[in-house]
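Here is the promised in-class demo. Please do not try to memorize the tokens; focus on the logic of going from shape to residues.
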């Protein structure tokens, strides 16, 4: 999971991907890779501390983005945008991995409906974070 997310972020930052590519990679890691079900099981079993290695990777990723960003942008602005994007995409991917299939069937939507929605909304979320900073 962590290697997949790091790879997606690097591609996006290098201009080799779109927001939707990042969304697809994170969703695939949580869905096909089983990370979503595993994370849910760990938390529901009361063993959330076992997620500490994932937390370390996420914090390292956020730190690396903040270090490589133009200082004129403002550290707080970058921090808000990066953490907002991380929370937004990860929570959606986790929810989709756990209940996505039954919920999509209930409302009559296609398999990649949530990915499409998050891919369209991610730039809006980031822009709002930048303008609120």
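The designed amino acids, position by position:
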């Amino acid at each position: 999971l962590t290697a997949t997310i790091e790879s997606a972020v690097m591609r996006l930052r290098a201009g080799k991907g779109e927001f939707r590519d990042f969304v697809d990679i994170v969703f695939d890691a949580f869905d096909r890779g089983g990370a979503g079900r595993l994370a849910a099981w760990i938390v529901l079993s009361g063993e959330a501390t076992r997620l500490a290695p994932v937390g370390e990777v996420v914090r390292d990723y956020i730190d690396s983005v903040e270090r490589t960003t133009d200082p004129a942008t403002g550290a707080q602005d970058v921090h808000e945008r990066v953490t907002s994007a991380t929370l937004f995409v990860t929570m959606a991917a986790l929810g989709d991995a756990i209940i996505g299939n039954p919920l999509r069937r209930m409302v009559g939507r296609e398999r990649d409906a949530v990915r499409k929605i998050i891919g369209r909304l991610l730039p809006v979320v980031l822009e709002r974070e930048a303008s609120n900073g």
